[in-house]
Amino acid sequence: MSQLIDLSQQDSEIYYIPNFFSSKEVDFNFNILKTETPWQQDDIKVFGKIYAQPRLTALYGLENKPYSYSNITMHPIPFTPALNKILMAVEAVSEEQFNTVLLNLYRNGQDSNGWHSDNEKELGKNPIIASVSFGGERWFHLKHKNDKSLKTKIWLENGSLLLMKGTTQHFWQHQIPKTKKEIAERINLTFRKLI
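Structure (tokenized):
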């Protein structure tokens, strides 16, 4: 496992570990998650218009707690053995506990996730998000909500772990932008704790 890199800026706690999973673990996890996950594509409402969400998703939970965002309410299914193993690895290094994981499948460069904060009330006051990436590598953009000069981007590598903690979700937004480049499929796991 690689060294933890501190990418924190004003009003944020952000840590990144490239090569958190070995190439063997990456291949195994990508293949099992791609084939075993019951992927769905929900409609989202943006500025009063309905669009098909530009990625596929699935929600797993250790408890039967629904999760709502962007006028979508998802109901979890139980963790699989593969997800449990990933969860244990993430909890060990983050020293945090999670009970829910939202999976995203980005099929190509046109699949994306617009500017947002993970600040839903069921995530509590200072939510901790642990984001694991398998497959195609993508840029992850961050910008401060109040100070427009504060922005950064992180290249999310295959097998990496990104942790967002503290007041990050209060003061920062993030996105996975579209790209016209040929990009392999990417599976992203965002572990969180619903209260």
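The mean pLDDT is 93. Residues 63 and 149 are 40 Å apart (CA to CA).
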